[in-house]
Design brief:
The protein has one domain: Glutaredoxin. It is 32% helix and 24% strand. The protein is built from 3 helices and 4 strands. It has helices spanning 13-24, 40-43, 66-73; strands spanning 4-8, 30-33, 51-54, 57-61. Strands 2-1-3-4 form a 4-stranded mixed β-sheet, with helices on one face. The termini are close together.
Protein backbone atom coordinates (compact mmCIF):
# COMPACT_ATOMS: atom_id res chain seq x y z
CA UNK A 1 0.00 0.00 0.00
CA UNK A 2 1.27 3.45 -0.88
CA UNK A 3 1.88 6.05 1.81
CA UNK A 4 -0.11 9.18 0.97
CA UNK A 5 0.23 12.52 2.71
CA UNK A 6 -1.88 15.59 2.06
CA UNK A 7 -0.14 18.87 2.92
CA UNK A 8 -2.90 21.29 3.84
CA UNK A 9 -3.64 24.76 5.13
CA UNK A 10 -6.67 25.81 7.22
CA UNK A 11 -9.75 26.54 5.12
CA UNK A 12 -8.33 25.00 1.94
CA UNK A 13 -11.29 23.93 -0.22
CA UNK A 14 -9.06 22.10 -2.71
CA UNK A 15 -7.60 20.09 0.18
CA UNK A 16 -11.08 19.04 1.26
CA UNK A 17 -11.87 18.01 -2.34
CA UNK A 18 -8.76 15.78 -2.50
CA UNK A 19 -9.54 14.22 0.89
CA UNK A 20 -13.11 13.49 -0.27
CA UNK A 21 -11.82 11.84 -3.48
CA UNK A 22 -9.46 9.62 -1.46
CA UNK A 23 -12.25 8.76 0.99
CA UNK A 24 -14.49 7.75 -1.93
CA UNK A 25 -11.66 5.53 -3.26
CA UNK A 26 -11.22 4.08 0.25
CA UNK A 27 -7.56 5.12 0.25
CA UNK A 28 -5.90 5.85 3.60
CA UNK A 29 -3.91 9.06 3.91
CA UNK A 30 -2.31 11.35 6.46
CA UNK A 31 -3.20 15.03 6.68
CA UNK A 32 -0.36 17.40 7.59
CA UNK A 33 -1.24 21.03 8.38
CA UNK A 34 1.76 22.98 7.11
CA UNK A 35 0.90 25.94 9.34
CA UNK A 36 1.48 23.68 12.36
CA UNK A 37 4.41 21.81 10.76
CA UNK A 38 6.27 24.46 8.71
CA UNK A 39 9.43 22.32 8.75
CA UNK A 40 7.75 20.00 6.21
CA UNK A 41 8.21 22.81 3.65
CA UNK A 42 11.96 22.24 3.87
CA UNK A 43 11.41 18.82 2.30
CA UNK A 44 8.37 19.61 0.14
CA UNK A 45 8.44 23.29 -0.93
CA UNK A 46 4.84 23.86 -2.00
CA UNK A 47 3.47 27.27 -2.94
CA UNK A 48 -0.19 26.29 -3.09
CA UNK A 49 -2.20 23.72 -1.21
CA UNK A 50 -2.76 20.90 -1.23
CA UNK A 51 0.54 19.23 -1.75
CA UNK A 52 0.11 15.53 -2.43
CA UNK A 53 3.02 13.32 -1.40
CA UNK A 54 3.02 9.67 -2.46
CA UNK A 55 5.70 7.37 -1.06
CA UNK A 56 7.89 10.32 -0.09
CA UNK A 57 7.69 12.09 -3.47
CA UNK A 58 5.78 15.32 -4.03
CA UNK A 59 3.43 14.40 -6.88
CA UNK A 60 1.14 17.48 -7.06
CA UNK A 61 0.47 20.91 -5.80
CA UNK A 62 -3.15 21.86 -6.19
CA UNK A 63 -6.01 19.45 -6.77
CA UNK A 64 -5.68 16.86 -9.52
CA UNK A 65 -8.67 15.36 -11.29
CA UNK A 66 -10.10 12.20 -9.76
CA UNK A 67 -8.77 10.19 -12.74
CA UNK A 68 -5.23 11.57 -12.33
CA UNK A 69 -5.29 10.88 -8.61
CA UNK A 70 -6.60 7.37 -9.07
CA UNK A 71 -3.77 6.49 -11.51
CA UNK A 72 -1.15 7.54 -8.95
CA UNK A 73 -2.63 6.01 -5.79
CA UNK A 74 -3.86 2.63 -7.01
Amino acid sequence: MKKIQILTTPGCSSCVRVEKMLDEMKIKYEVIDITKNPQILQKYPIFSAPGIVIDGKLEWTGAPSKEELMKKVK
